[in-house]
Amino acid sequence: MARRQNRNNVASGRRARGVTCCCGQPIATEAFKKFEELFEDKPLAEKTVYRQVTQELPQYFATRPLIPVEGAKAISLFDLLRAPVSGAPASLAEQLALIRKLWRPLLGDSMDRFLMIAGEVLHEEELAIWMQFNPDAVRARAAAEEAARRRRESGTQQWPPS
Whole-model pTM? Predict the structure, then answer.
């Protein structure tokens, strides 16, 4: 029950018990809700100066050189790293798309291809989950594809339609 309440707090943007990102801010993104256990930092925060240090990160990076972003004004490294979560809090796929857009000139083509593949894998996973919970739609699509294949093979399908 406590875990469910904690997840609800994260989803609604309220501070989840001990669940924060590297800057000490609560993880309030729907996209990471299912990975909450990976970000639990309560033991670390209780035994080290982790919270105090990470809360100073925005101010520290504001004093460092800004990062040029193609088609936008230069921003701090901290803001560049937080931009995908701020821009698309509910979707990992949209966060990956923002990373590709903002960071491509900084990371190069090989990393861009890697991120593109990661986005495609994520899409396939979402599709597989959707198919699991929508079996009637999956069967209807398979039947329609089979009927179209039979029409093509028998020559009864006209293309382009007249």
Answer: 0.57
